[in-house]
């Protein structure tokens, strides 16, 4: 499967309507689900090499609208990794302490150390999405923040961290179905936030804000627009992109500081 059509080209205007939310890559659900275990096995192997090598890090950014599938992606894709080598961070409403610093302060503190995979379930981009949609910052300040984010991601890249960013792209109709399913099932009421309905009313404003955020796609820190109406295809495509990314990083097991052939365990 070729992920290239889902990659956002650097320095180009972005229109989310260019990507179909229910794309299936020419595969059936059965075919896609059959491919996933092999990718999960490969992800686990590459992560072990990354952890053992300890010379590089991988940062995975997940962004989506409410009910877009961030948690599901963590469970079904990130779940292939050994938890010892993964750090998952979720950036919600800033605390008083966080608001007293620059907007990237809390984010930088959660960047993965070498050898680790970091997952941002929501990220630095929240501070140019929610804040802009609700009028807390204007478009000019949002653009300055995007410039700071570009510089921040460049700093991480220069320090040995590979970055890959996913926007999970669902339709308004699919979001409605998922939110309704949470209301219909008492066991899922804990996942429902009445505030999500207010955010849904700003659909077009969020579209514009996301399109601006996606312009931060670069060769070193690319954005991918992941069709997310079909959960199985979302999981498959994200897994394939992560396999490709880790293979490009090419982590290697370190050379042992001893000659194993000379050692004998009694």
How would you explain this protein's 3D organization?
The chain is an alpha/beta fold and 266 residues long. It has a single domain, classed as P-loop containing nucleotide triphosphate hydrolases (Rossmann fold). The protein contains 10 helices and 5 strands; from the N terminus they run αβαβααβααβαααβα. Strands 2-3-1-4-5 form a 5-stranded parallel β-sheet, with helices on both faces. Helix 1 packs parallel to helix 10. The radius of gyration is 20 Å and the shape is globular. The protein starts with 28 loop residues before the first helix and ends in a 17-residue tail after the last helix. The relative contact order is 0.22. The mean pLDDT is 95. One of its GO terms (molecular function) is polyphosphate kinase activity. It comes from Deinococcus phoenicis. This is Polyphosphate kinase-2-related domain-containing protein. Keywords: Kinase, Transferase. Pfam families: PPK2.
The separation of the N and C termini measures: 49 Å
The CATH architecture category equals: 3-Layer(aba) Sandwich
* H/E series: HEHEHHEHHEHHHEH
Roughly what percent helix?
Answer: 40-55%
* Spatial order of strands in the largest sheet: 2-3-1-4-5
The profile of the biggest β sheet is:
5 strands, parallel
Task: Give the helix tally.
Answer: 10
Shape: globular
**Rg from alpha-carbon coordinates:** 20 Å
Would you spell out the secondary-structure blueprint of this structure?
Elements: H1 29-53, E1 57-64, H2 70-76, E2 86-90, H3 96-99, H4 105-108, E3 117-121, H5 130-133, H6 139-158, E4 161-169, H7 172-184, H8 195-200, H9 203-213, E5 223-227, H10 231-249
Parallel strand pairs: 1-3, 1-4, 2-3, 4-5
Helix pairs in contact: 1-10
InterPro entries: P-loop_NTPase, Polyphosphate_phosphotransfera, PPK2-rel_1, PPK2-related
Protein name: Polyphosphate kinase-2-related domain-containing protein
GO molecular function: polyphosphate kinase activity
């Amino acid at each position: 499967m070729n992920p290239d059509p889902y990659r956002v080209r650097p320095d180009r205007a972005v229109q989310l309507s260019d990507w179909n939310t229910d794309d299936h890559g020419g595969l059936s659900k059965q075919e896609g689900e059959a491919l996933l275990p092999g990718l999960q096995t490969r992800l686990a192997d590459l992560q072990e090499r990354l952890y053992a090598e300890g010379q590089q890090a991988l940062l995975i950014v997940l962004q989506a609208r409410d009910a877009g599938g961030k948690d599901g992606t963590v469970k079904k894709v990130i779940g292939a990794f050994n938890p010892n080598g993964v750090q998952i961070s979720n950036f919600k409403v800033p605390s008083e302490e966080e608001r007293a610093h620059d907007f990237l302060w809390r984010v930088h503190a959660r960047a993965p150390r070498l050898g680790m995979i970091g997952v941002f379930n929501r990220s630095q981009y929240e501070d140019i999405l929610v804040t802009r949609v609700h009028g807390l910052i204007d478009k000019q300040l949002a653009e300055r923040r995007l410039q700071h984010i570009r510089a921040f991601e460049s700093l991480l890249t220069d320090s040995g961290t590979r970055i890959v960013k996913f926007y999970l792209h669902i339709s308004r109709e699919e979001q409605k179905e998922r939110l309704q399913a949470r209301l219909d099932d008492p066991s899922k009421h804990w996942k429902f936030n009445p505030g999500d309905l207010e955010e849904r009313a700003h659909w077009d404003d969020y579209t514009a804000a996301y399109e601006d955020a996606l312009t931060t796609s670069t060769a070193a820190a690319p954005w991918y627009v992941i069709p997310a109406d079909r959960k199985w295809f979302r999981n498959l495509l994200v897994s394939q992109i992560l396999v490709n990314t880790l293979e490009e990083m090419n982590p290697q097991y370190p050379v042992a500081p001893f000659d194993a052939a000379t050692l004998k365990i009694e």
